[in-house]
Every structure is written in structure tokens, then in C-alpha cells.
Amino acid sequence: MPGIKLSEKTIGIIKQVCSDFRNEGSELINVLHQVQGKLGYLPAEVQEVIAKELNISVAKVYGVVTFYSFFTMIPMGEHPISICMGTACYVRGAEQVLSEFKRQLKVEVGQSTPDGKFSLNCLRCVGACGLAPVVLVGEKVFGRVSPQMVKNIIAEYKEVGASEAKSA
Amino acid sequence: MEMINLTIDHKPVVVRKGATVLEAASGIGIDIPTLCYMKLEDMNIENKPGGCRVCVVEVKGRRNLAPACCTEASEGMEISTHSIRVVNARRTVVELILSDHPADCLICAKSGNCDLQDMANHLGIRKIHYQGEHSMYREDTSPAIIREINKCIMCRRCETMCNDVQTIGVLSAVNRGFQAVVSPAFEMNLDHSVCTYCGQCVAVCPTGALTEVDETGAVIRALSDPTKTVIVQTAPAVRAALGEEFGMTAGTLVTGKMVAALRRLGFDYVFDTDFAADLTILEEGTELLNRLSAFMAGDQQVKLPILTSCCPAWVKFFEHHFPELKDIPSTARSPQQMFGSIAKTYFADKIKVKRENLVVVSIMPCLAKKYESSRPEFSVNGNPDVDYALTTRELAHLINLGNIDFKSLQNEDFDAPMGESTGAGVIFGTTGGVIEAAVRTAYEIFTGKQLPRLDFEELRGMEGLRKATIDFNGTPINIGIAHGLGNARKLLEEIQAGTSEFHAIEIMSCPGGCIGGGGQPYHHGDSEILKKRQRAIYSEDQNKSIRKSHENPYITKLYEEFLGAPLSEKSHHLLHTKYFDRS
Amino acid sequence: MKIIAEYNMHILVCGGAGCKASQSEMIKTNFKNKLNEYGLADEIQVIMTGCFGFCEKGPIVKILPDNTFYTQVTPEDVPEIVDEHIIKGRIVERLLYLNPETNERVSDSKEMDIFKKQIRIALHNCGIIDPENIEEYIGRDGYSALGTCLSEKTPEEAIRLIKDSGLRGRGGGGFPTGLKWELTRKSISDQKYVVCNADEGDPGAFMDRSILEGDPHSVLEAMAICGFCIGADKGLVYIRAEYPLAIERLKIAIGQAREYGLLGNDILGTGFNFDIEIRYGAGAFVCGEETALIHSMEGERGEPTVKPPFPAEKGYNGKPTNVNNVETFANIPAIINKGAEWFASIGTEKSKGTKVFALAGNINNVGLIEVPMGITLREIIYDIGGGIKDGRRFKAVQTGGPSGGCLTQSFLNTPIDYDNLVAAGSMMGSGGMIVLDDSNCMVAIAKFYLEFILEESCGKCTPCRIGNKRLYEILEKITDGKGELEDLNRLRLLSNVIKDTSLCGLGQTSPNPVLSTLDNFYDEYLAHVNSSSCPAGQCKALVNYTIDADKCTGCTLCFRNCPVGAISGEKRGVHSIVQSLCIKCGVCFEKCKFDAVLIA
């Protein structure tokens, strides 16, 4: 296993979450939600701790993590980009928007850019069909996105990062 | 019992409430093909995810076809098992499986023994109408098991064995949709996992997705090397199953034919692991008696119950899962390793062959034996005590390669000195056998009296967990028996909790013991086969003139000439081992 | 807590997902600040409500009591609304909805076409109450249905009422709700569960989310009633983790209901105990299937198991479990309050009441609508939906999401109910209604849904795991222009087997989009296969963009917008497209003001 070593603090966080759920195996999904919420992703080493705490096999934990699209084993980019691939967005051209993001960022869906700035994902209907096609960058929603807007959306975050870095 | 009336293919059937359509149909001789379904009667082992959809049948009034394996029969049901709609669906489903399956039957280890191949043939599939992308996974080779997961059809049998029966939890379904497959966590290699190599996944895999590491090639090379003396040992359970590979009825004992075949193949000496089993009894039995005596003398430090240690999968199991109990099992090596150790010292000296020129091959019903022989503590300067551990299946393959007409072979006898064994050594091959063999010896040594009877029916059977109390001339000795690691876990948890009532416990990893080992001829889900093998083992015991290990004259001689006494320093060095914390 | 009636005036700001995405939060803040400035904060209440339903024109702001309905409000518009409308009583005309036909401004939402034909039962509080204030729910008869059941009815009587109302499950299949409750009631067990399925997974539906965001108590109340009826004291809401607002409001609602003694022990002093917990879905469409949902709640992979046993006999933790979806539950309090007859008087013979649809796609009025069963597609699309966007031609409506099918022109006058939709080769599903026009390729639509299924199939059974993959590959071959006539036959044969043999509802319905488009748009498939052309111009591999030299004015608009620099040409000179660079995104076609870009 290409290992990362978890800090004592991280292990403490995971253990705390598990004990909040009485270390019950049936609470696995709740535990995974909480831990991903706190750590951002669920690498193998984290899953191993969870398996141990809940007294279930690590294969089972991995089986569950890989079943649900919400769980991720790779860290998200600083600015996670999600393209809504709900039907309403699709019929209004979400596919073209997605391929433009892929082209501009040079990543596939589920990957992050090498600098860790952006990650690209698809999600299902977010309920903003009136604004289709919809793109989320972090919490922010961009509506009626066209392929031409993609460049500017990315630029906006590149600059944000740069100016933040400057001011810091 | 509440009964249900239904009709299957226009024939009326009466079944007990709760029976499935599949069971109802088979009751009147209608064979509905199944693929993922597996049920080992009497052993509480069942796999019916309803996933393959090969057993679908038409149920009048239902919109969709229903899987016979997990549809309960209900009153008034009208079933068609082979209508055109069903046949078309069944063929299409199998075509779909084949469309995502490597078509390398010509070189697949499972060819001829593959449920999927049989099914395709049975359904007369000659063309796959739906071609497309294949799922691609990397091959994983461990000391005992090869995973070619491209061949996985998601029947989930291995998952059932690994999780529900053995409670190891190495395998799980991972990913979803077309990418779904059964795999260890993080798709890691098996040898990085807590796999015990019990091989039960291999034993039930319907395709070539899980197979053993094949060492027949290495054995052929050794046999053809004139500088090597190649000797072979055969485990007790092999003789009760090998015949199946040659079309003989399950339960046919083929000891003599097996010996003859091994000689034809060119082994210089054909020996018996049963000999080492007798040796094990003396070592392990003495250990038990020592601990018992100490316990009775009031020694609080003594560890009881003593646990058997013949089964390498079981050893690896407690090293991973119960390392804190690693002082409890007997330190005696398994018969395979005792044999190897004695062969490469005592016997090598006897025939004046250097250790490095003596090749020890073992024929085992087991996959974990491959792993066991590779453990570093069982080698001297890099030379292993046992060079190659072949399975029963691999031996059958070798015999076929040698074009030996197995069925017509005349019986032959093992060679001396390591071919002589007692009935006690033979019954090592079944659940309950090791402890029965130990009782036969321990009783007589402990009490100084002759046993009034040799058959301990109370220790025999197929129940996953059994217990019995044997009266050692006024001292009740409580014995526990578990086969299947899930059952073993229960006994270990009792020990951990301090509630165990036993003095001695026998544990075998595989359901049925070694007769049901991962290296045996495939039982294809028929538990009757295991029972027949068990009966064969007990009948071999019955027919032996000597049935107690301590009465084996060659063992007595071995102690006199070489080892001294059980648990002597030499015995400790050559016949005992230690365990590791692998948690 | 103060309730609506205690304020003089109310400003309702839509908190639906679409409006929130368009800064409705900021609008609310601006209102509050402005009112504070004027010292009006105590007299005028600003409420963030659930979805109003007119998402196309969001963000929506509604002023009560005069019912003024402002559309497409920006945070910058707030001072003007306060100064003009609130202070001076003058409606801000420019923010009113403009009726596209009459070109008149409409101020009262009741007068708008999108609302005229709606009957709101499940959504009746959405966009009206503050979902974070239980008093407002109670103020509109909230929890009175629970009170009635607990004090005046036996469980059997309440179940009878639900059965008589004719309510059917709104999650997809349309199983009679009362019957389901009765079956679970009849299962004997020491412990039973009520589960609310809020794992809305249809990629074009958001009604469950809207109900939970706009009126969470209606669902809680219904779950408690269900618990009373079937004999359960525990409820679980299985909700998509991607719905943070709905989760937040649900949590608030559960907390308030407990505080008010409407959940917990000895509810309303009747000795009835019932409490509700939240469980999170984690992104698996198949978990909409009851058995998969239950496995997921148990911490397992969300793989379905063969039914029977049904959850009513053996569900969560092996105990009898009643699973209904959000919209189904949201109908329950109204049925108890107004009676089975009232409910049954709405709708068609076998489909009673209303259905909420998420009307989206290429239609003018995208939004969330609730209409009586039996309404025609024509009424929905043209009267409520305001017709097809950009004056294009109606092609089809897709209902039932990935499990459904397409309804064409010829079904425009068919009354919509469960059975008619199935007869027409589609299904009700959870209520996604996607309008397609002549720019949508039906083969591509079928492929879109299959792709979704591929991602969401659990992989347990062969037909769904491999069969759908093969279906998708055939469709891909066709949209790539490599299809053969025989492929169309294979599509149909394979689809039929997948339907016939799959383990769960997901697989059993997954080929519907393929079969339905094959049935209704066979010519379009033929065009792809026989002449390698995509009539809708959507399948990239089959189209080439070229510039008509006669029409090109050299305005450079296409040149400037092409994302890959595939267009060359001088200003005021004729432009041309370098085919080897063109990624066929269609931007040039959209941008050109002179129709000079051609699709061939």
C-alpha cells in the first residue's frame, strides 16, 4: 500500500466519530459521512482505522466506500467543480460544458488537476433546473453555463487563488 | 408441517412451506440450471444472492421471470421452467456473462471443471451476440491462491465462504455496475491481506477466477533431475477424494492406486503423511498430558485448553485475529512439516543424500499447505523442509500427464520407514479425527490402561461445533471441536472471555475438515460428497491393524534411533514451532 | 415565536435550490438590513420559504398580504422594492411577470398561467410558510391530522381512510399506500419501522427536496400517523447527503416537533410514542429501491435483494418496515383532514389526487408544479409550461426518468395517470418531466439514460450489470455512425431480456428509454444507421459544421467564441472552419447572427 501516515490527531478524530456512533458496524455509512466531512476524503489508512474501530473487515469498508459515489478516496481540489448531469441540464447542453471543462483542465471526471487547485465531478439533479445547465464550484452555483463561459469560470478561481496568496 | 401445492411444468408438486421453487422442482426431478446458487446441506452454508439470473422461471401471473433459487413456492403457483421465453432469457444471460469473460478456456486452469463452461455447453451457446468491452483487472498471485478476476462472474460464493463461513473478511464486493467485482480491500494483493489461504474461495469458485498456485511444473522438473532424490508424502484426506478426479464414486478409497501412480510418476520414495500424523500425536498428546497434569497439580499458569495446530490456515487465522492467544495452541508443527523436517534430517542421513539434493513433495487436500511450506521458519539456510505442496487436483493432473490409467492400477504399499501409519493417523483427514487420535493415545498414557473401545462416535459428525466429555478413568476431559473458521472464532471468543469449559479443542479451517479442503476435487456444492469422503476415512481406520499412534513401530523406532523422547530437545528443535503476532 | 398573523406584512423570499443559486440568500439579507434601517423589522417579516415552483423566473419574492409576485429579483432590486412597494405602496412594475402572449405584467401569482391549473396538496405550504417555524405549520392546520388520528380513530380506521382515498405511492411504482400500510400493520413483530425515502435520485426531479425544504413538518406528521397506523414507534428519513438545506430544515423541524410534544413519548398525552431519526444516502440511485435502501440504512452496500420477502414482512433490521416516499407522505395530512372522498374526487378512476412534476428541459416555464391526475400533457406543456423554448418544435416529453419513456405528439391529449403512462410505454416515476424539442436526438437521449444506469447499477445481477453495458455500447455505436440495421433488432431483443430477468426495479425498467424511443422514433434510429446522419444534429460524430460563404459577413463573432481556435478568417472576410481542429461544440452555430453556420 502506498502509505500515508496518519497523525495521532487524525486517528483521534476518526476514533471519536466512531465512538459517537457507539462503534456499531451498522453505523458505517454515518461514520464515513462524518469522517469525510472532517478530513475531506477517505484514504485507505482512514478506512483501516474505521474498520478496526467498528470491528468490521476493511474489505467491507472499502466495498461500501466504492459503492457510493459520495465517498471519495482522493482529496478534492481546492475548488471542486461539479457539473450537474441531471436530465434538464443534459438537454440544455451540460455534456458540452463538461467536455469543455475536461479540455480546459486536462483532467477526466473524478480527477484533480496536478496543482490540486481543481477537481472535476458530475452530480445528479441539484434542483436548479431553471438555471440549466448548472455548474457548482464549491458552494457557488453558476447557472445557464455555456462552453464559452468555462474559461472565465476557471479564470475566476485561478485569480482568487492568486490574489489570496498575495494578500496572505 | 404446512404443505404447499403448486404445479411445475404442468406436474403437481407438494412441498413444505418455505421451500423454494428450485427445491420443489428438483423434488420431482426437474433440473433447473443454476450458476451462482450454492447450498451445502447440513453445514448451514448457503449462497443465493439471486444475481446470475440463470435459474429464472416463468411464474404465471407475474410480470417478470423469477429466480427459482430464491423464490419461495406458494400455494397455487404455476411454474414453467423451460418455456421458450425462459430458455431465451437464460441463454441471453449466459451469453452476457460470456461477453465479459476471457475466452481462454484452452489454457484456463479450470477448463473441464468450470461451471460456466458447462453451462454454456448445456445451453448450446455457440455464438455471443453481444460483444463489447471486457472488465480488466490485474492478476494477483499469492503463495497459494491466484486471482484472475477478469473471470469473476459475481456469483459471490467466495464472499460467502470468506465472510459468513470463515469470518475472515478478506473478500468483499467492491465498486458497482460493470466495474463491480469481488476483491480484497483497496484491491490489494492477497498476500498483503489477512487471508489464511484456507482455499474455500477456490473450492467454490465456479470459474477460473480463483485457482491454486500450480506447482506441477516444478515437480516435473525435480523428477527429471537426475541429481535429485524426490520423495513424496500424501495427506490422509487425499486418498478419500483422488478417485473422483478419475470418475470414481465419491468416497472410494484409492490409497493403493495412489501409491502405485506416484511410483509410476518417478518418485523415489512414496511415503505417507499419516506417519507424521502419528508423530504429531505423540508430541501434541504429550504436551496435552503435561499441561493437564500441571493443571491438576494446581498450576495456575498453565494454559488450557490446548488447541490443535495441524491446520496452517487456522494458525494464520489466530496469528492475525487472536495474537494474544498465541501461547495456547500446541507448539507441535503440522504433520506435513514434521514429515519434511524428519525427511531432511533422519531420512536423508539414512539414505546418505545431502539435504539440498533431497526434494520433498507433499500431496495435500489444502491450499494453505503451500503457504505453510513457504514459511521461513520451516527452512534451513533457505532450503525448505517441504519443497512443493501439491493439491489433490494437481496430483490428478500429474497422473493424467503421465498417461496413467489410474482406475486399472494395482494397489501398492507405501515405502518404509515413513510410509507406515496407524488408523489414528488416517482420521486426521476429517473433522474430529485429530482429537480422536489424540484421545486414543493420551488416554492410554494418562491412565496406563488399555482403551475399552477405539471408536469415539461422540467426536464424529458434521456439526460445525461439537463437544464431548471423555472419561479418562474418572477424570472427565472436555473436548471441543470446530470446523470452519467462523465456528472456531466462537470457541476462541469463549477462551478470551474466560468462559471456555474445554481442556482440548480441535480446529480445522475447512468445513468437514481436510476432506473438504480447498485443494480437493471440486464438490460443486454437493455436500454428500464430503460425507462420503468422511465415511471412507473412517473405514480406512477400521481396516488398519494398528489404530493408535503410540503403537506405530516405526515411530517408536524413530524415537529410539533419533529423537529420544517426545518433547526432547531434538523434538523441540525439529518438530515444534512458535507463532507470530500478525495483527 | 411569532406567527404570520402577528405581522402586518410579509416578504417571502424563495429558498428553493434554483433561487438560492441566484443569490436569494443575499436578497433576504438585503431586505432585513433595509427594513432595519427603516425600523420596520418588527412589523414586516422576511421569510425564506421553500420552492415557489416558478424556477424559470427565479429568484422569486412574494409580498403578502397583497400577493404581489416579483420575478427575477436581484439583491440590487431590494432597496427599490422596499422604498416603492413597502413604504409607498406602489408595485415595482418592471419586476412583475410579463405574460409573453399578452405582453402584460401580472402581479398576482394566481393569475399566472403556470399556477392557474395547479392544485396544491403536497405542496400546499411550500412558498407560504416559514419552514423553520413549526408555529406557522400549526397555524395552517398542521399536526391536526395526527391529533385526529390519535384521539378519534383506530389505526384500522385511519388505514381505511387512506385506502379509500385511493392514494398511490408517488415514488414510482404507484403501489396503493393504504394497502402497504395494512400489510405492514398485519405483520406481527415487537418492533416496526416507518421509513421515508428521501433519496431522490431521478436526475431530473427535485420535488422531494422542495417539500422537505418548504414544508418538512407535513412529512414528519405523516410519518407519525403511519407509525400509529402500522404500530411502529420509530421513523427514519433516508435522505440524500447532497441536500444540506433539506437536512438542516428537517433537523430543525424534528427538534421543534419534539419540543412541542409532537414527536417523542406520549404524543399529545395519548400514550403513543414515535420518534424520527435521519439517515444519509451517499449517492446511489439504486437506493431508491426499498430493499437496497434498507441495506444502505444498515450500513451495507445498497444492493437490492429478491422480493418477497417484502419490507412489510422483513425490512430494516429484519423487522416489518413501511417505506413511502416524501411526496406520498406529504399527501397524508390533507387526506386525514379533508377526508378520503375529497381526495378521491380529484384525479382519474385509478389515480387519485395530484402529482408533483419537475417540469424542465426545453420549455419556457421551468418549475415545480402540482397538477391533478388526469390533466393532459398539452395543458402541462402549453398552458402551464408556456410552450417550447425559443419557438422550437415540440418533440417529446420524457417522464419517469431513467425508468421511463418518451411521450410524443400523439399523446398530447392523453390524460396523465399511472396507468395511461404505462400504457403509453412510459411511467409516472418520481415526477421528472423533461421537455424535448427538435434539437434533441432521441438516440442520444436513450444513450444518456443508459449511461446514467451504467453508473448507478449496483452490479449484482447479470442483465443489469452486463446487459445494460452492452445496450449502451450498441447505442454508442449508433450515435458514432457505425451502427447496422441488425443493431436495432439486437437492442430490442436484449432490452426485453433485461426487463424480464433483472433482479430489481432499476434493471427491470432500465431499457424503457431505449424501447420507448425505438417505438416512437424508429426513423431517427434508421437515419443514424442507414444514412449516418443525426436529424437533430446532436450526435457529434455525425455532424460537420461549415460556414456558408454567401451568408458570412465576417463579423468574427464565431472566430472569437470558438473555444479551440478552429475558425479562421479576416475581419469582414469569409470565415471557415478547420475540420481537424473542430470539436463540434456548436458554439459557432449558436452565436452566428446570420445563420451562416450550417450543420451537415
Globally, the shape of chain C reads globular
Q: In the CATH classification, which architecture of the largest domain in chain A applies?
A: 3-Layer(aba) Sandwich
Helix content of chain C: 25-40%
Gap between N and C termini of chain C: 64 Å
Q: Report the order of strands and helices of chain A.
A: HHHHEHHEEEH
Gyration radius from CA atoms of chain C, angstroms: 26 Å
The figure for the number of domains of chain C is: 5
Mean pLDDT, all residues of chain C: 92
The CATH topology of the largest domain in chain A turns out to be: Glutaredoxin
Q: Level of helix content of chain A?
A: 40-55%
- For the biggest β-sheet of chain C, the strand order reads 9-10-8-7-11
Summarize the structure.
Chain A is an alpha+beta fold and 168 residues long. Chain A has seven helices and four strands, in the order ααααβααβββα. Chain C has 24 helices and 20 strands.
Structure description:
Chain A has 168 residues and is of the alpha+beta class. Chain A has 7 helices and 4 strands. Among the domains of chain B are: 3-122, Ubiquitin-like (UB roll), CATH 3.10.20.740; 226-275 and 336-408, Rossmann fold, CATH 3.40.50.1780. In chain B, helix 8 crosses helix 10 (335-351) and helix 8 (273-296) packs across helix 14. Chain C has 600 residues and is α/β, with parallel strands linked by helices. Chain C has 5 domains: 9-115, 3-Layer(aba) Sandwich (Glutaredoxin), CATH 3.40.30; 134-341, Rossmann fold (3-Layer(aba) Sandwich); 354-437, Ubiquitin-like (UB roll) (Roll), CATH 3.10.20.600; 442-530, de novo design (two linked rop proteins), CATH 1.20.1440.230; 544-599, Alpha-Beta Plaits (2-Layer Sandwich). At the A-C interface, helix 2, helix 5, helix 6 and helix 7 of A face helix 1, strand 10, strand 12, strand 16 and helix 17 of C.
